[in-house]
Every structure is written in structure tokens, then in C-alpha cells.
Amino acid sequence: CKLKVIPVITHFAIFCKAKSKKTLAKSGVKNVVLVDGVRTPFLLSGTTYADLMPHDLARAALQGLLKRTGLPKDAVDYIVYGTVIQEVKTSNVAREAALGAGFSDKTPAHTVTMACISSNQAMTTAVGLIAAGQCDAVVAGGVEFMSDVPIRHSRKMRKTMLSLNKAKTLGARLSLLYLAILEYKLRIGTFFQNSEFTSHNCRGIKKKKYIYIQVHLNKLEYCCLNFKCGDVIVTGRDIVSKDNGIRPATMEQMAKLKPAFIKPHGTVTAANSSFLTDGASAVLIMSEEKALAMGYKPKAYLRDFVYVSQDPKDQLLLGPTYATPKVLEKSGLTLNDIDVFEFHEAFAGQIMANLKAMESDWFGQTYMGRKTKVGAPPMEKFNTWGGSLSLGHPFAATGCRLVTTVAHRLQKEGGQYGLVAACAAGGQGHAMVIEAYPQ
């Protein structure tokens, strides 16, 4: 299957001057920079990408990154990709996509998985390789292909199918087939320890169901106007020029939607959830020294980051609440120092739960061992170009979108520090501080 890759305009003609604040550079530690980032358009699963495979999308993102940056293919020391719902035919999708994109076969590649923060893990793995002096240039990314997820037979059926090889007669084989119970099990976004959909964990969180969605509806026009300033490439057998999941709707239309999981009184609906999405992303991460030597103008510094985890039973999606104060303390910053916030949005209820927990002295004292609350990001700085609810959420690709969006927003808005935070299945979370590169 051939993919047509066309980079689109991603730069503004005029950038604001960044505020004058202290830099987070550390003596004796390499500066690691984000040179550039791209992504495929994020599409509703089952639409234009439906006949492709995950490595097709990842390959397209890699090819787009090569075209955008003009990077020599043999200049990359390592490639690492994240994915969540794995295609068994291409278990190391990083390697499959890299070879398909034309990278040197001498360039190692591996795949990581950490639920919705898989490409965050890929990026911080790249940062670690560079900081340790093992590499100078690493490509990181993530891909998710929800149009074709593995659907398993029941365990009893699988055992029966394996037993067919030992059956000696046709009658014995027919008997095995007759006795088998055929069950299909499709589990997307579940956590094994409590077998609970992440969306179920949002139940009871929000009484005002649509508040956060209304915020996004008010920002949709702005989001669409700024679409090409982000990190988009075009790919596919058909030319795909934009995301197709943005669904403008009225409050009245959204209020009529039925609950997706807990019926009839559930609050999670198609209007306040990130939709099943196909897409891929890729970023070029380098040591500052190497980037400048090759003539690049980096977009941002990748600074401190943390990973957190907590009890998935009742705190499954609260990773941002736990990770944000830790990464700020590690960086010596406060919430007021951050100019740009980009939080992953799994569900509106998940975001509202985090914002409420961050504003709660009781939660900070009871669950986090703090004297006071964390404090919530101001909405005027928060996900202003649209988030996972409006743009889509290809699980493993979202992290790179968040980081690249922060870099672009810092350039456009004249800020110096941005903060990315995300939750992940299993009660885990991630946060990273990004510093604008001097213009």
C-alpha cells in the first residue's frame, strides 16, 4: 500500500518574544532539544485509514518527519516508538516502520508500551539515551490503529483449536468444535488488575456533565484556525488534509446522547469522551550541540520529567494531579511560572476530576501528604488549541502531539515554560516541563 506524504505549513511568520525568566539548563548535563515534530491527521477509526496497518501510519509519520527536517536517514542513532493495542504481525512496530520509511537498516529500533503515555515514554527514553551520551539524534513517536484491533476467542475456544491438531479422526475434530463455546472478547482501554474500563472510573465524578465540553465548543473555531500551525502531515491512499473527528454540536444535541457504559444513569457519552482514533506521531530529539552543528533551529528544550503511579481502583485517571507538583518541584518552578498547559483528555469527567483534586486541600492532605492543595491550571492557559476530546486520541500517539503543541504554543504566545501531563491505565501518569528555545 503506497502512502502519499505531503508536509503542510507549520510555522508562523511572526513569533512573540519570550518572557525573561531563568533557564532550566543544568551544569554538566546535556541540553536535549525538540527539533521538530509531525503527526498524521487523527481520524475516526473505521474511516479513511481502515484498510491500512499500524506500521503504515507510523511509516508515514516518519517519512513526514524526514521531509520536514531534511534529516539524513543515516544521521539517526536510534528509533523508539510507543503503541498500546499491538498488531501481532508487527510486534516491533518501530523497526517495521523505520525500515519502511527508508531509515538505515543499521539503526536500532524498539517499541514501548505504557498505555496512553506510551509515546511520552518513547520521548523520555530518547532523552535518557542522549543525556547518557549513548546517542546524539533519536526519533521517537507513537502509533495507534483502532480500525483493526485484535479480537480474541475465549480461552476455551483457543484450547479447543489447539487440541484439533491432536484429534486423529474427523469425528473427534467435529466433537471438539461442537463442544467449544465461541466467545469474542474485545477489551480496549482496560486494566487487567481490576478489569475495569477507564471510562467506568469517571462515574460519579461529574454532576455538571457538559461543562468541559462547552469549553471546547467555544474553542473549536480557534482550534481549526490554528490547525496547520501544529504538527500535521497528510497521508493515505486518499489525500487526507485534516482531522475528521471534530463534531460541532449544541448543548441540547449533546444532552440527548445516551450513556456509553452504565445505563441508563451513566454520565460518559460520545460527547464528553475522546473517540476511537487512528493516527501516528513522530518527533526528532537531539543534543543541542548536534542540532546546531547540523544547522537546525530547535523548537524547545525538553527539561525535567516524572512518572507517577497510584492505586488504580479509585485513582485510575488522576496521574496529572500527582505528577504536576512533582515535576514543578523538581524543576524549581511554581504553577504561576508555567505559560502553557497541555493535559491529555481521556474524558471530560477525568479532566474535571483532576482539576477538582488539584484545587482540594483535603485531597492534597489526605491522599498526597501535602499541607495544601496542588492548585489547578488557569483555563486561559489550558489546552487552548483543542485536546484529545476534540482532536482525537490515538492512544500511543498523543504524547508527541502534546509536547509538539506546547513547543508551538510557546513560540506563538511568547511564553517560556510549558507543562505536559497525562494519565494512563493502571493508575499511572506523566508530566514534563518544556522550555522555549530562544528565538
UniProtKB/TrEMBL annotation:
Sequence ranges assigned to domain Thiolase C-terminal in this UniProt record: 296-435
Active site: C116, H393, C423
InterPro entries: Thiolase (IPR002155), Thiolase-like (IPR016039), Thiolase_acyl_enz_int_AS (IPR020615), Thiolase_AS (IPR020610), Thiolase_C (IPR020617), Thiolase_CS (IPR020613), Thiolase_N (IPR020616)
Entry keywords, A to Z: Acyltransferase, Fatty acid metabolism, Lipid metabolism, Mitochondrion, Transferase, Transit peptide
GO cellular component: mitochondrion
Location relative to the cell: Mitochondrion
Pathway, per record: Lipid metabolism; fatty acid beta-oxidation
Residue ranges that the Swiss-Prot or TrEMBL entry lists as coiled coil: none
GO biological process: fatty acid beta-oxidation
CDD domains, sorted: thiolase
Gene3D superfamilies cross-referenced by the UniProt entry: 3.40.47.10
Presence of the UniProt keyword Acyltransferase in the record: yes
Subunit-structure text: Heterotetramer of 2 alpha/HADHA and 2 beta/HADHB subunits; forms the mitochondrial trifunctional enzyme. Also purified as higher order heterooligomers including a 4 alpha/HADHA and 4 beta/HADHB heterooligomer which physiological significance remains unclear. The mitochondrial trifunctional enzyme interacts with MTLN. Interacts with RSAD2/viperin.
Protein name: Trifunctional enzyme subunit beta, mitochondrial
Organism of derivation: Sinocyclocheilus grahami
